[in-house]
Amino acid sequence: MSMTGEVAGTQLLGRAAAALRAVSGMMPRGLTTAEVAERAALSRPTAYRILAALAANGFLDRDARTARWVLGPELYLMGAVAAERYDVTELARESVRELAARTGESAFFSARRGNETVCLLREEGSFPIRSFVLYEGVRFPLGVASAGLAILAFLDDQAIDEYLANADLVARFGEQHAAAPLAARLRQTRRAGYAVNPGLIVEGSWGMGAAVFDAGGAPEWALSLTGIQPRFGADRRPELGRLLMEQAHALSQRIQRAQPAR
């Protein structure tokens, strides 16, 4: 294959991956072709060709009634195989349930995937008013939402500097996600041991998160809580942070015992 062909093939693979990530982040609702094009930064004709090819190979389906693209059966089969090595959600379920039961808030487990986090588990607490910013499958860039903030804060300094220099979060998430204010929140997260999102995604919807570490000491997951602002007052945040770090430490130990360093 010529160098030109290799570059074109790599670009096509990257575009297909972007389309799949866009659809997976909006499950079970799915996305229209135009929505995939916007989220994956593709032209609409290119998006359609990629989506159709993915569907022909079983990676996507298209709902005949809504014309929305959804994940297909081939991904389910691949995911079931990959889960044998990578899936730690069963190890996390105990901590997520414990957090929801002890706080009354919605509790979550998220995993780092490159420069994003993806929510894998959700458990509702007993408090009747809830925030619906997070749900299984939703993705956010690192530094956005409390899980991504907690993970980013505990990467090494070089990785953080490189991320802040290249991330473009302002257009989608607002000026509070520019490099300077984000860096300030990362410093505060390191000092406290847990992250706080004071309604920066949806006004009035607060979140807190704590990083979960693999056997090599890398922050690869996070536990988090979300709820309405009055439930996250200054008098209650230290206790919520303590519970998050307690469960994050326990989960880190369970994961490290199950997946020893290689």
TrEMBL record:
Record domain IclR-ED: where: 74-257
Gene3D superfamilies the record matches: 3.30.450.40, Winged helix-like DNA-binding domain superfamily/Winged helix DNA-binding domain
One Pfam family from the record = HTH_IclR
Which keywords does UniProt give here?
Answer: DNA-binding, Transcription, Transcription regulation
Enumerate the spans annotated as HTH iclR-type domain: 10-73
Q: Which domain of life is it from?
A: Bacteria
Which PANTHER family does this one have?
Answer: HELIX-TURN-HELIX TRANSCRIPTIONAL REGULATOR, ICLR FAMILY, TRANSCRIPTIONAL REGULATORY PROTEIN
Name this protein carries in UniProt: IclR family transcriptional regulator
The organism is Gryllotalpicola koreensis
